[in-house]
Design a protein that fits this description.
This protein is an alpha+beta fold. Helices cover 28% and strands 25% of the residues.
């Protein structure tokens, strides 16, 4: 049995969420494939008409990416070079038709270990804005995703935006994904990197994140600490060691072995550091 609502305001959507349990539908690019041959059923809350949630805007304390902003919206937006990694990830999300429908927030709420948007967002210290009928709260992205298909979202809540603090928008970023082919593929491993340098070429801020090598994408704080203070001219990619990946827990599956994933993550990280430092 299907119960379907398509509210025209955020307030109406939150009121519906406060009174029943709903599956939230936006672009539908995760919901519909998961059905396979089954019809849509249950309580479906379609938020695609909430145009107020589709803005991408600079605010005084950082950047605001609305929950209904699509990957195509992100690609077209005028953003600092620190968002280049996120834009590269956007171009890896399926085909242009999928990019026109799929949303960045849908990608993180689906909470797949291979979600392409998560590593570059982690390098930007992204926070998740969550609303209910009675309250608004913010959660760091690293705390929002608990594991494979599990998030911090409560039944009466929806994600309204992704927030990027101004302090995390310095420097240049990149994103590198390894799959069985170039496009339309699930990641074997992926790396996002953001490096900020002073006028002498010394790294003042480093953010490195690895995806598809654990249940949740992870930052590499020990590597970030090793990179900070080093000079781009000294080729900081040489600082990458296997120990920096010791906390990752990659799976053996049909796409790759755990050992291959770790080796791939290390090599991709070296390449990403070179690219973010203007050497790749």
């Amino acid at each position: 049995m299907l119960s379907y609502e398509r509210p025209e305001s955020l307030e109406q959507a939150l009121d519906l969420l406060s009174r029943d349990s709903w599956k939230i539908l936006a672009g539908g690019t995760d919901v519909y494939p998961a059905l396979r041959d089954r019809p849509l059923s249950g309580h479906i809350l379609d938020v695609s008409a909430l145009d107020d949630l589709r803005t991408i805007a600079r605010q005084k304390d950082g950047w605001h990416i609305g929950a209904n902003a699509t990957w195509s919206d992100l690609i077209a937006a005028e953003l600092p070079s620190s968002f280049d990694g996120l834009k590269l990830a956007a171009r890896e999300i399926g085909s242009p038709q999928i990019q026109n429908r799929a949303t960045l927030v849908g990608n993180i709420c689906n909470a797949s270990p291979a979600a392409d948007g998560v590593p570059p967002l982690l390098t930007l210290d992204a926070r998740v804005e969550i609303k209910s009928h009675t309250a608004t709260r913010q959660v760091p992205l690293q705390d929002f995703i608990h594991g494979n298909r599990h998030t911090d979202l409560k039944p009466d809540e929806l994600v309204s935006a992704i927030l990027i603090p101004a302090a995390s928008t310095a420097g240049q970023s990149t994103f590198i994904k390894l799959g069985a082919r170039k496009y339309l593929v699930i990641s074997i491993a992926m790396v996002a990197a953001r490096l900020a340098c002073d006028d002498k070429g010394t790294i003042s801020d480093a953010a490195i994140s690895i995806g598809a090598c654990s249940a949740v994408a992870r930052r590499l704080p020990e590597l970030e600490a090793a990179l900070t203070g080093s000079k781009i001219a000294d080729k900081p990619a040489r600082l990458v060691t296997p120990q920096h990946f010791a906390e990752l827990t990659p799976l053996d599956d049909v796409r790759a072995s755990a050992g291959y994933r770790l080796e791939a993550a290390a090599e991709l990280t070296r390449r990403a550091i070179c690219a973010a430092g203007g050497q790749g």
